[in-house]
């Protein structure tokens, strides 16, 4: 029971401080209610690096009131200034300067806003102008955040801009099949229900139609906020390193002034989601991309109040099961399906949800789509016959859910806050706010029976999604133009489905799952074995190198094992890469029935192509991990049966995926072009090939060619592996032995030395006599990046494949490096930097200095790029900056700073605007023969973004970079991945973040200004750039450098670009940088007694 309010000016009522939480969770929690009835969950974590807050407003697009996109546009506008902080970029700028991020989303019944910033204590939270007092940046961010809900300005100058931003978002996703199919489902629902509407909005709904009707949109936005944004409909979650009392005081001070209008919960109880006339029904629809799916959907229970049972959760688990006896196993045996999934969707309070079953069809499955639908109902009929038989499956699932909850690890800060405030908007009791998603639900036979009774043929909508349809597409969806045809479910088919549903005779292959053999029994955590701060070298022979780190941080009974099977054959050609991808798919397909039980028990595996060859990764409870690893290795190395029917399914699916990749949004395609162009290999080596390069190879794959590839792929291997987690050194040695024994027992491989072979710590000098057939490390390909000469600017342009996509995209790369061991600047001025680490190569120290400058300039520019190019100039919805640490080659010394923009405007115009922006950052460029003195250039530089920055602001930017670099992993997986990247890149720089941070702190403002003028400023004789254009069909009708690129606003664009016409010739003209090297000798990583 809630306690009485605490006395005081801002009386706060304690709801509960007794929340169910994982045994590993050391956070303190408290749920309180403010005087205005806003409920808040406070979370205090003294170890958190990033503080976060998220607020869910219990209103969304269902209250658009006849103006589609109204709620969505209000969400955009709340970021654009408040009475207390009127600048339209104040919030984003403050968040960005403190290593943070923010976002928001609008759903039918809720709008969620969230952010995170560095949690470190400082003396002030505001900038030098505002001088807002506060103990941390989180205070300043939280104060700004609270103004969204008390006093947003809805500035007239920002209204049109954000309507354009909403329209850009609409156009961004216009060709997205996921969005188109989602909207088609909505448009085919009951027209009387708000679900039938359109929630994104565009220029037509937010500008043109309101103007025609005389509606003043700024007033409507203000009215929507005043009417629907009520404190009693809001839920706030706050996570910081401050005490609960401090967080409570902040929240009470900042959020108690949000008006409480005492509004009722938004509910829609009187109108069904589908009318009686709309069911049963069949829909055919045509996607943009080439894929085939069958969806079988039913109006289901409204599970809002069924959080303790949720029968839909268990039904979806068993309908989507992949083990023996499952629907998928049956359909795979028929060669009709490659995947089956099931899910429930909550629509809104008071309205029935939807339970959907989706089958990924093969070519044969498309021909037999009605038989697939019949199989779905045969499985449902089996479940419906005796629901009590589901109890054992439910009880087992509950046990596994309890394990998952008890050993759940921390997530990213804003992932935690945003998901928690969404959960607080449901009817879940406060004590379950942080755990109901994972916690077990009780089996209720009556409720399960009722749920199954809803899955009848007479209540279904069957949707077939395919580009192939024998008739004509009769209709187009209103908002996205999706082609479809719909009809009542044919009487003959309905009759057959009813007979199946009511008949107890069904294929014997369909049955409930067996008992799960992977449920862990030993959950002890070893705390006795010594743990090291970074991975140790456990074994290093000519054919196997194993790294190990015993976990002493997260203390969960889990481990992760990663093995890279190096073999140049995997990526030597497009043909081999195509075979390698299919080989990995066939392995996964073979293991699917066996390993699905493991996945339910928290054990997971993956087999895929990596940067050196095949990759194997297993993770989960360490008790059963060796069992899963042994089976995966057996299939990879020995037991895989290459069947022609299965190979054809995956060959055809992968072929479609490769072709579909060129139909994605341009902004999703363009990141692949940089490594494709700047890797030293030609033809391009995996993983830098574009998917289209694999198409010819895939068309000629046969069973014989696959068998030949397997022989070639497994004949000679060098294995680099890593054991991380609740695994002692001795256990890691046994796991390494499992890998070695598996390889040694493979007829196709003689790569392993015999048992007892000597340990060799310097494999470049000595090779074991027993490994004559081993793939020596000297034979493993050394990846290298191509270096663009100083002062040279390249351009590569392509036309996108999808004629219906109006978007263009530019990726503007400024290449930096390789650095000189003595300097980063052409005048040989040695920059201030820490001394090299013990045993560290001089070039490593120089590289740290380069990365420090690059990290810092990226951090400073990211919010400014977004504000200028997206918010102010409205160039497009997608505007982003990124640092590419090693384009073209993992672990290389070459880095790049990139700006990417997607919009309807031409790439030439975008490039000009990017250059204009960079000019404001960099000032006068460094040229071979300066026209002004250094003192004059320095004076000009004072007018730039960096020049106007005060020393305290510059130090704050540096601190933001360092805070982000030193952010600790939140869980074991993140720590494992961090260390594995260092192993994979062959630098073994396990303390890179800590050492690079020291270099960031040593950078002086004048150093960075000189660096930017030299390597980033347009016109600099030392700048190296690559502009990549993906042009729409409309833009491609004009020659390069034509169209809007010639307008006056384009003056100052990069001139003298060299167009890349011949990829081979381009690559041949460039020099390759050195390959990756360990930052220090490998012997220094060995366990002490083996050094």
From TrEMBL:
Coenzyme PQQ synthesis protein F-like C-terminal lobe domain sequence ranges: 856-922
Molecular function GO terms recorded: metal ion binding; metalloendopeptidase activity
Superkingdom of source: Eukaryota
Pfam families recorded: Peptidase_M16 (PF00675), Peptidase_M16_C (PF05193), Peptidase_M16_M (PF16187), PqqF-like_C_4 (PF22456)
A single cellular component GO annotation: mitochondrion
Domain (Peptidase M16 C-terminal): residue spans on this chain: 219-388
Family the entry assigns: Belongs to the peptidase M16 family.
Protein name: Peptidase M16 inactive domain-containing protein
Organism expressing this protein natively: Microdochium trichocladiopsis
